[in-house]
Amino acid sequence: MVYGRIYVNRVIWLIVINLQLNSSKAEESKSKDVNEYCQWETFQPRCPKSEAILMTSATYGRMRIGRCITAEEIDAQRSLTKDDPRILDCSADVLLLFDKKCSGKSECDVRVFEIKSANIKPCVPGLEVYLEASFSCIRVADERRSCAVTVSSDPIHVIITSDDAQRLCGSKEKPWTVEAPLGQRINVSLLDFGSSSPLQGERRACQVMGKIMDKSIQTVTSICRNEGIREKEIYSSKKNYLEIILIESEEERRGSNDWKVILKFKSVGCSDILPPEDMWLKRTEDLIAVGCYSNRQVWRLNCIQGRWNGVIGNCTKGHEETIKSESNALLKEEQSSLSDSEQVLAIVSICAFTVAICIAIVCIGAVCLRRFYLESKKQQDYKSLNCFVDPTKINFDTQRFSVEKQGKELLRSQEENAPTYSVWVDDGDSNFISRQNTST
Hints:
About 30% of the residues lie in helices and about 30% in strands. It contains seven helices and 21 strands. Strands 1, 3, 4, 6, 8, 10, 13 and 15 form an eight-stranded mixed beta sheet that branches. Strand 18 and strand 19 (about 305-310) form a beta hairpin.
């Protein structure tokens, strides 16, 4: 029974480790390939419920010969423009434009020919230009359901816009709470879609839009936007819990600017694991030592990219030895498991039993003393009688005979010692009167 429970726990432990190994692949499976969209086509990304679009690339121009531009068209254009280098392999990055139109939404529609209206002209006229774009679907926390976010190695995101009226979470009374499994830390990144990259040497002031509160070390970190960096890591926690509070800026109060950012939360490190019942475990940051109770075998695991790497052996020497060692361990635990209250109860019981024995001894002694007193009193009563008979020396088999004999002897002695008197008796004959001796 004990052996079977140990085996089941070890299997569950291995399953947990395998899940950690496979969880890092979840984000990669959601990425979309780069596709071409010709001038007459529409870019239409779609994501399932509880997910949102995150643009990963958007390039506009004539990048290469393909579905939208043929080799014949390029040759004909070169003959007209005298091999102008901007005929092919010319492009412009339009990721910021598509971030504003699509990122953070569950779906969007962008017609390629509308890009011209943004005055983007990376190539010489004469041939059509096209769009190459890719996106991914990211997990998004739904603040209409809860302000609590559970973090794993698969990132989860919180979308924040300049429309403060639509916010349900992020206030001091109802902050965003972010929690990872025990043993892991939380990395916080900011995706800012509201500003272009700064020019060389340009410095932009931090526009504080919120605060990160790490209560485990009592620190507060500001969340800055509009720094010209599309994605950057802004904080890494010490423990597995954070709180996010959003702050209304001057632009929001005036309503002069629309902006949109995404907070990205991802757990890093390896979560705590429980060893089988026949093993002990000790963790020091990203290192774990696992050993056997039954012997001195020790194995070590390293946390690498959120996964425990290493080999753990088997502490079991045999079914019978395992059961025996387990039984001995359980017996020792039972023997040492008396709590303070149980020990006090045991002492009280022993004392009560001792007192009861003492009372019984005293009672028995009193009874014996009383019996001895009564026997002594009887003997004194027999000795006070005018009798030559010693009650302690009577033979009970001849008691009656001895008493009668002594009684007769007593009467005979009394008769012999009694005084005699002469009495004249008239027997009816007036001529003769006789004398008889009698005793009193």
